[in-house]
Amino acid sequence: MVLASWVRADMPSVLRYPSDVSASVNRTSNGPSTTVLGGGALGLTVALRLAQRGERVTLVEKEPTAGGLASGFQPAPDLPGGGPFLDRFYHHLFRSDTSIIALIEELGLSASVRWGSPVNSVLWGGKYWRPYTIRGLLGFSPLPFVDRIRMGAVLAFLKAWPKVDYFERHTAADWLRRMMGTRAFGVLWEPLLRAKFGTRADDISLAWFWSRIYCRSFSLGFLEPGFQDLYDAMVREIRRLGGEVRLGTHVEGAQPIAGGRWSVALRDADGTRHTVVSDSVVSTLPVRVTARLIPDLPEAWRHRHDWGDAFGAHCLVLALDKPLLPENTYWLNVNDSGYPFLVVVEHTNYVPPSRYGGRHIVYLGNYHPMDHPLFSKSLEEVRAEYVPAIKRIVPSFNEASIRDSWIFGAPYAQPIVTREFPSHIPPLKGPLPGLWIGSMFQVYPQDRGQNYSVALANRLVLEMVRERRGAD
User: Fold this and answer.
1) Rounded to the nearest 5°, which phi and psi values hold at 244?
2) How far apart are CA 118 and CA 121, in angstroms?
3) What is the rounded average pLDDT of the residues 417-442?
4) Per the confidence metrics, is the pTM higher than 0.85?
5) To the nearest 5 percent, what fractions of the chain are helix, strand and coil?
């Protein structure tokens, strides 16, 4: 959900860490060596910062492209060079995303960032509304005027209060219902929570909701033509600095070995198996995956940190020959019941269709438990389910306007952030010598996102460097 309008444009990120972690040193064959597991934003940033320090680093990513959840695909692979990349899932930047904005600038890509204030709407009662601005909320007639004022006051409080401690004691559903009123909560926020978290909606911490209000800006940014350009640039820079990036390589396990070092078992796409030995391992994989790959983790650590649930992300991406949503709407939260998706994002109502050969790019997104039947459906089955729903939203829509379509799914995309969640977050320093653990489960109280992954990676490398200095 987009809640940007209730946040000052200059609001700093909660997870702002020093970015000066790239001080260069002379590379030597005797310097520290690290294997980084996972090639998303977090893993790439860790590998880049270590390589910039002159350290020997090997990054391993199972997919053929880097970027993790933010990676892209080539919708027109027959074009020279495979054509431009399009994001598999919808992404954008906020002005408050200081860590990733600094990284983009560092890599010389700032000129490719488009900033703007696209239209964000909600579908309620079969109509489009814009209650995510002060003016839009005041004109939101499905709610009595007093409820609109009451909701605005509550959102203003959430925007202004800088500390998370108070919010950790409450669930979002209970607190919002009491503070905003049953009608306001039931119209705007309950449908979004239930669409995103299903049966777990009542368990979600108010801290999760607060963070989405507090740290977001009204202006949105996008790296044209897609964020894959950023992650490809990071791969090139890591390799230029002497680091190794192994794409299309699976991690089969990792274990400490004699001499205080680590052995990581790998399998290439062709089935070839080999081993990498290093002084340290940084796992940026989901905590549950890390626990499965490292059998030597202490049972007490597993009991405390291999905990909780996460939903997978699912997206149907459409390339249309004409616009879909009216009023140049970029983001449409679907609050009416009975739809198989929770959001419609018309990407080309923000970035011009000319960037994608004149096609209009639309994302229809969902989050579900990872055993949900949707993840096993074919593209044809998903389209057959979604097209009638699209026609309910846009009666003039004709399936013949679909020129191409794709589906994507990703596990562990949305942690279920309950009130108990903070006590189960693992520290960055792992329970075994030389092991470090960083994942989006550790960006709390923030939600998952590229910016917070970059910030957490900067912090992790700083802690690694400080520990090494302390041991010298």
Assistant:
1) -115, 130
2) 10
3) 96
4) yes
5) 40, 25, 35
